């Protein structure tokens, strides 16, 4: 089991890899956007690291207090999706038994979420004000839930990819994007470019639910066309830096239309976080 200090270190590294990776449409060290800066994301990771890793907090409390700390520090929603995805992973590693895989430990965490967890998370979503995430005829975040957190996520899974992870034990991450990350790391020998490779692979495979909550399917075909071109280019080079002009062009096109593939970015962070935690665990036991 990783200590809280080790979890904090790994979490911050995963968040840093997010802003260091040139993911078109997202805030990065290459370009800001959407009225947010790189400093907002660095500060968000710093202030949320302690509450999200607090072993004395329940799952719901981890998410709420991490969101609250972020909102108080930067005044906007920079990391709600990251927190929703990383908190169960942290809870799992804190409860993980010897010889048990992280995904098996995660399955137990998700199976035993409570109505109280849902109440904390609904409050967190209200504080973060992401726009549209919790609007539903059944279990709207503006009302008190009468189902567990995992049950609430199951209700939302068809319109939100993050909710879908709770309902499927993070299938997208464990069955696809971790393999994609390792492939990218082997191909490019760079954590940042491996993260970009995860991002393009996910966005090519799944429509971004953050975009579709905001615009419906208005831009879906156009976004897919852009990202296929980037992904094909990555698949056909071992020198990804050569693609920077292309990435700048696509990034500008996305931001000019107000398009932010935020859900895909959050899934990318969670992927990097899992890989880093598992690597840390191996180092600690070897």
H/E element string? HHHHHHHHHHHHHH
Span between termini: 13 Å
Mean pLDDT: 93
Number of strands: 0
What is the C-alpha radius of gyration, as a whole number of Å?
Answer: 18 Å
What's the shape? globular
The proportion of strand residues reads under 5%
Helix content: 55-70%
CATH superfamily: Triphosphoribosyl-dephospho-CoA protein
Could you explain how this protein is built, in words?
The structure is a single chain. The protein has helices at residues 4-20, 38-53, 59-74, 80-95, 102-111, 115-128, 149-156, 161-168, 171-188, 191-205, 209-215, 220-235, 244-256, 262-285. The protein has 286 residues and is mainly α. The chain has one domain (4-285): Triphosphoribosyl-dephospho-CoA protein (Orthogonal Bundle). The model is unreliable at 131-137 (pLDDT under 50).
Write the layout of secondary structure elements.
Elements: H1 4-20, H2 38-53, H3 59-74, H4 80-95, H5 102-111, H6 115-128, H7 149-156, H8 161-168, H9 171-188, H10 191-205, H11 209-215, H12 220-235, H13 244-256, H14 262-285
Helix pairs in contact: 1-2, 1-14, 2-3, 3-4, 3-6, 4-5, 4-14, 7-8, 9-10, 9-14, 10-12, 10-14, 12-13
Summed up:
The protein has helices spanning 4-20, 38-53, 59-74, 80-95, 102-111, 115-128, 149-156, 161-168, 171-188, 191-205, 209-215, 220-235, 244-256, 262-285. By secondary structure, it is mainly alpha-helical.
